[in-house]
Amino acid sequence: MVDKTLELFDCGHRACGGCGAALAARLVTKAAGTNTIVVSATGCMEVFSTPYPETAWKVPWIHSLFENASAVASGVEASLKKQGRTEKVVIMAGDGATFDIGMICISGAFERGHDFTYICYDNEAYMNTGIQRSGATPYDASTTTSPAGKCSFGNKRPKKDIPQIIAAHGAPYVATASIAYPADLMQKVEKAINTVGPCYIQVHAPCCTGWGFEGEQTIAVAKLAIETGLWVNYEMVDGKVVKAKKVVRKPVEEYLKTQKRFRHLFKPTRQDAEIATIQAIADRNAEKYAIDIKLKKE
Amino acid sequence: MMQITEGSHAVADAVRLCRPQVIAAYPITPQTHIVEALADMVADCELDAEYLTVDNELSALSACIGASAAGSRTYSATTSQGLALMFEVCFNAAGMRLPIVMSIANRALGAPLSIWNDQQDSISLRDSGWLQFYAEDNQEATDLHYLAYRVAEDHSVLLPAFVCFDGFILSHTYEPIDTLSQEDIDRFLPKFSPYERLDAADPISFGMYATPEYYLEFRYEMDRALKESKAIIEKRGKEFGQMFGRDYSAMVEGYRLEDADTAIVAMGSICGTTKDAIDEMREEGKKVGLLKIRVFRPFPTEDLARALAHVQRVAVLDKNISLGAKGAVALEVKDALYGSGIPVKGYVIGLGGRDVRKKDIKAIVGLIGKGQGDMFYGLRTEVL
Amino acid sequence: MSLAVGCRARPGKARDNKTGSWRVFKPVFGKEKCTLCGLCMTLCPEGCVHETEEGFITPDYTYCKGCGICAQECPGEAIEMKQEEK
In three state form, how does the secondary structure of B175-191 look? Predict the structure, then answer.
């Protein structure tokens, strides 16, 4: 069971006020417990938590490079195994480090079957370098490298489906989670670290600075992602979806309207076709994961 | 015990005796025989190590970083393009002060693609903070692995080390090797004792980032540790000599240099050919000697200047080229002899596996006698 | 004096960075409406909200950045964001 009083991610870190990733770091370490070694990739979380000598990590922690966290974790795990030690290895990497630059190392590490838990805190762009588009950036989001403009509605591609790719490697446990549902997130972390083999959890972690909303809204925005079906919290065991959070779905624009990265869809003129395309993404998610709660007709 | 063994297999056997606990490697010619031999040893329970067959060289060295930080003695091997793919990780491993040892079966870098020998690969990482040992023959290639671990893991050093030996020329050549026993090596190389490790009982953050207030000092401390490792190399090299009769305390080694007027400076297997050429030139009355560089990083500037103080001219053989400048060894030698008045000329030779014969060494001695140098030697006439 | 070899550190030093100085709005926790549900403690990205010995919930203003998540998410509306006076 998770010890709720345990704080392994210390005060004094330099994340923006209302940072979703910082909350993810707190919740994940809380769930993983003290017998954990964290491997971080370069990124916002690494930078806001470890300017020498001010580390926020109260568990053993290692950062090497941007793309190699899963390879470093492979080495840590192999070493622990050789020494007969019991610490659990948890990777914490952003979506850029996971979806894009880290894919080779990730594929290799999952194929080799190391016993670790890979947490991707997904804030849907390269936040540390100033909000550039990544493979996790959703359709039509405006970023500094996929800006909305006179002939652009922002990011032209939908989000890459990394959980499916990881599951296809034979990962025994793959899940998505959200900082808006901390108990669910922590339960999934606990489950993953207690599952032998390489496990993956993708955590939706809104970024107030990068997405353009007030820090107090971080949880509300994360909730709306779930409530509109643009983010689905589910679990996969041995490649099969076994559970998905059901919702009474709201229209996607309730989510889109909260963030400046989608502002161009509403101002200066409302872009109905684009909003409909995004609604279709949510509808497909709802169908694929069967998340709709059917209300009885009155 | 003397055994006739292929260079790669001799190196693999030396690595086995060093008891690495985690090995991570990726196949690449001409290094592959080493990791194949190690895989055989693991499969036959002759080597008790975790052996990771990684997805690329970047992952190989990254896994070594993780394993070393977690408290294991680690090993990898690569060459050429593989080493180039590790470029970023090499700087990282050194900056994180992790004493990883890696064999480099030296090979040219593309393009154009070449699987054959020169030393461009490891030389290109001269600024990365790794110790760099270069072997003349396979006996030295094996022995330098023991020395590399002993020095790298010293708590006053804590830097990773390359053991470089020429691809194919050494790696695929059978030579008689004096094979040491496990008991021998256990006496020389103690169990790995990490300076610090990732440990839930004493949490430490590894690989933090340094702001401008600290970065300069971290680089300074690496440079200092690398320079101070000279004393450790001398101490452990001497100890090795006392135990097994082959003394590696000197970072540079002279051959018929005492009374020479012309000195050749070289690194790696070319030293063997050079020695034979010198013997023949000596019979002709030419006072030629060799200064072999065994340790390129840290660079033995003072030792080299001392050893060459009496000569009239120096010819440096470079199996690499810093394009747009000169061979990297020549640049170092010129720096070491700056102000001495001794003329130093560099000769870029043997790139991409071009054979260097005794007559080429003699021709270079002829060239420096005429004051000609700082050039590629042995070019096909159509490019001239 | 030498730096820590390899740019490493043990925990504790992050607390030297007193992020409370960033605050523009200050969460003021009202005791009357608080049901001690603890949601504010769970959702604080700083992990600086805690229960006092007297059984009240309060943030550590040394580190509270004033993001306002606690006030926004409090089911009892027991937390009010007030302009910081400095």
Answer: EEEECCCHHHHHHHCCC
